[in-house]
Design a protein that fits this description.
The protein is built from 3 helices and no strands. The chain is mainly α. The chain has one domain (9-62). The longest helix has 18 residues, at 9-26. The mean pLDDT is 87. It comes from Sinorhizobium psoraleae.
Length: 68
């Protein structure tokens, strides 16, 4: 299994680091709400599968409306 698909914590961290680097290259600033939300789940030891579901719900709940 490659580091692109592995669920090992080290490879997940590598992918997240790569995503952040790519975003900086593209000029996309991180959303502090996202950073705080994911950091809190990491601190709580929330399993990856549950983090994915919580993140989906979080993004739906915080998605800006088209009128904004």
């Amino acid at each position: 299994m490659s580091r692109l698909t592995s669920q090992k914590p080290a490879y997940i961290k590598w992918r997240v680091d790569q995503m952040r680097a790519n975003s900086r290259i593209e000029g996309i600033e991180p959303d502090p709400r996202y950073i705080d939300f994911t950091a809190q789940m990491d601190t709580e030891g929330v399993p990856v599968e549950e983090q994915i579901e919580r993140l989906k719900a979080f993004l739906k709940a915080t998605k800006p409306s088209a009128a904004e």
